[in-house]
Design goal:
It is a single chain. The protein is mainly alpha-helical. It contains five helices and two strands; from the N terminus they run ααββααα. A two-stranded antiparallel ribbon has the order 1-2. Strand 1 and strand 2 form a beta hairpin. The longest helix is centred in the first third of the chain and has 22 residues. It is globular.
Length: about 130
């Protein structure tokens, strides 16, 4: 029953995250409080690193799922050599028993993610299963 346990833990974590966000919304969204003074759990909400007053304040984003190409493009824009050998290879191992992501989301957890990460979902055109 690994699958049910994993799904249950994910949904419980998501509920705690939603509550953490609600309890600390002002602190999370405050541009006046530096990130290093915010509780570590709030690092999951890092919009203060790329938004100012709700507007993007960075030139471009590199998404992890396309890391090499993003770094290559950045190097080209900055006219510096691209050295892929310097990029660490992390999270390369696959799970022994992959769990379909769709199984993790019910109506409540899907709505919670859509609310918590509305800006990111819209900006990067992510789709939440469900």
């Amino acid at each position: 029953m690994l699958k049910r346990g994993e799904i249950r833990r994910f949904r419980a974590w998501l509920q705690r995250l939603g509550q953490l966000f609600q309890d600390n919304r002002t602190l999370i969204e405050s541009a006046e409080v530096p990130h290093y003074l915010k509780p570590i759990q709030l690092s999951l909400f890092d919009r203060d690193k790329y938004l100012i007053d709700g507007e993007e304040c960075v030139d471009f984003f590199i998404q992890y799922d396309n890391l090499h190409q993003g770094i290559r493009d950045t190097c080209e824009k900055l006219d510096i050599p691209f050295e892929p050998g310097l990029i660490p290879a992390l999270k390369k191992h696959r799970q022994m028993r992959p769990l379909p992501i769709e199984d993790f989301y019910d109506k409540q957890s899907r709505e919670l993610v859509l609310n918590l990460y509305a800006w990111e979902i819209s900006r990067f055109r992510y789709e939440i299963p469900g």
